[in-house]
């Protein structure tokens, strides 16, 4: 369980870093671009990943390109969500995104919808609505709800793409590196164009921040994979521990460390999120 604890810590650490990014004067595009350089190198060195296996099957091309676009795009949205909606809402939205892929599995991939799965999806949707609810002068405040909602949908779409890559026969490591490399190229094209246009000159601060972001981002993935390898017969335990752990730790860090204001409805959403993960675990 040490691996899972480390995965939880690094997952929340990514959110904390993104929380500090704006006040530290970080250009998020440059940071995300550098993040994928670091993540690609670490995937190659530590997971032994090569992109050839993912690129060999033509069926992987479309989901890989989609991943190459979605991964950096959702990272930018994640940064916006952490800044405007807070760590608690963002982490809950990210963790409940698994229910988007679960829904897609029985709609598009031939999975069977059971009563328990339907209950889990229903509770997850209610949890998202509760967590995103903000009230100001008696009306729901819409200024900060769209970013975590995009996080919820975006990470769900990413999970679906990884499932399609795996279904086509590519290993997780190969698909991961392939997606990282596509994201790397696209991000650096955007970063260089912005720098040449004078909108955001390349800075050592943003690139250095990206190195740290990439290390934490990859460590989260690595330790989660190691957790599954250490407990090969208990995937549900790894799954539940990771998702509930991130929701709980993210809530504590956001509420206590950054004094994010949460209403009773928001806390009900956090509890429902944990319940939804529990139902998903014991399907």
TrEMBL record:
Coiled coil: none annotated. InterPro entries: EmrE-like (IPR037185). SUPFAM superfamilies: Multidrug resistance efflux transporter EmrE. Keywords: Membrane, Transmembrane, Transmembrane helix. The chain crosses the membrane at residues 6-21, 28-47, 59-80, 92-109, 115-133, 145-166, 172-195, 207-225, 237-258, 265-282. This is Membrane protein. It comes from Luteibacter yeojuensis. The lineage of its organism: Bacteria, Pseudomonadati, Pseudomonadota, Gammaproteobacteria, Lysobacterales.
């Amino acid at each position: 369980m040490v691996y899972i604890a480390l995965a939880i810590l690094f997952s929340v650490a990514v959110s904390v870093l993104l929380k500090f990014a704006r006040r530290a004067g970080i250009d998020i595009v440059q940071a995300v671009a550098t993040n994928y350089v670091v993540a690609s190198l670490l995937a190659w060195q530590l997971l032994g990943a090569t992109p050839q296996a993912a690129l060999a099957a033509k069926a992987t091309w479309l989901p890989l390109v989609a991943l190459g676009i979605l991964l950096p795009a959702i990272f930018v949205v994640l940064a916006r969500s952490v800044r405007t909606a807070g760590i608690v809402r963002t982490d809950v939205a990210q963790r409940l995104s698994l229910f988007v892929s679960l829904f897609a599995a029985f709609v598009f991939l031939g999975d069977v919808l059971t009563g328990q799965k339907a209950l889990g999806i229903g509770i997850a949707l209610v949890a998202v609505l509760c967590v995103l609810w903000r009230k100001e002068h008696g009306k729901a405040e819409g200024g900060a709800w769209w970013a975590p909602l995009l996080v919820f949908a975006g990470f769900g779409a990413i999970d679906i793409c990884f499932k399609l890559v795996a279904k086509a026969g590519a290993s997780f490591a190969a698909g991961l590196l392939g997606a990282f490399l596509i994201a790397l190229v696209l991000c650096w094209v955007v970063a260089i164009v912005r720098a040449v246009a004078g909108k955001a000159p390349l800075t050592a601060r943003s690139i250095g921040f990206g190195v740290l972001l990439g290390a934490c981002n990859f460590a989260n993935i690595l330790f989660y994979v190691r957790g599954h390898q250490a407990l090969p017969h208990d995937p549900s335990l790894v799954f539940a521990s990771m998702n509930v752990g991130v929701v709980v730790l993210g809530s504590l860090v956001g509420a206590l460390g950054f004094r994010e204001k949460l209403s009773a409805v928001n806390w009900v959403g956090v509890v429902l999120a944990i319940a939804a993960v529990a139902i998903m675990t014991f399907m």
